[in-house]
Amino acid sequence: MHVNLEGIMASTLLGHLGRWLEAVYPPVCALCGDAGMRGLDLCVGCLAELPRLRFPCPCCGRPLPEAAGGRPCGRCLRRPPVYAAVYAPYRYAAPVDRLIAEFKFRGRLANARLLGELLRRAALEDGRVPPPLLIPVPLHPQRLRTRGYNQAVELARPLARTFGAHLDVDCVRRLRATLPQMSLPAARRRANVRGVFAMRAGRRLTGSVAIIDDVMTTGATVEELARVLRRAGASSVEVWSFARAGQARKP
């Protein structure tokens, strides 16, 4: 039996380093400022207040009433999305919206560790395993320079480490800068992102992939990206998002 000694040693060193850093810089709750939990910048009380999404549509991930019984929502029955499924463990509601806004728009990169860890823990708790290839929604270079980081990439890192998935940050490019989707009415969001993504020259895909994003609202962005990935050879596309907005219609 082959034993990966280098991997074991690296994991052990990282574990020691993490414990040392926590001893020197103990976790602090990102919401209330009290002492955080081990390995998490949230206190027990604030963690309990995060709105988990318990009854999503299995296709688009929109919240459904428990009585729907796991069946697809009315939208997906009428017009199935290009992507196969959505995993979004949290609802886009207070205080999740605050954590994402501070991370995405106010330069609070420390929230990257928190949100990535929460997404990783939720996947383990829910028994979800991402596809072997993770593709974060790309930013336009201009926006990436302004923000300094791509929030979707930061969310994907803990998933890649835990599940051994490959994180590809370069196979898709954003062809033009677009208006922020959340600043537009739902009717304009599809037109805003139409034709905005393209595969890098010569890149082809095989097997299933996961699109990684911070929050999914109408789904226009990930549907456009999923269409590009399917044309490039992906057999199926899942969407993994930290939070899901909206409300699904009953079947």
UniProtKB/TrEMBL annotation:
SUPFAM superfamilies: PRTase-like. CDD domains: PRTases_typeI. Coiled coil: none annotated. InterPro entries: ComF/GntX_DNA_util-trans, DZR_2, PRTase-like, PRTase_dom. It comes from the Bacteria. Residues 21-77 form the Double zinc ribbon domain. Gene3D superfamilies: 3.40.50.2020. PANTHER family: DNA UTILIZATION PROTEIN YHGH. Belongs to the ComF/GntX family. This is Double zinc ribbon domain-containing protein. It comes from Acidihalobacter yilgarnensis.
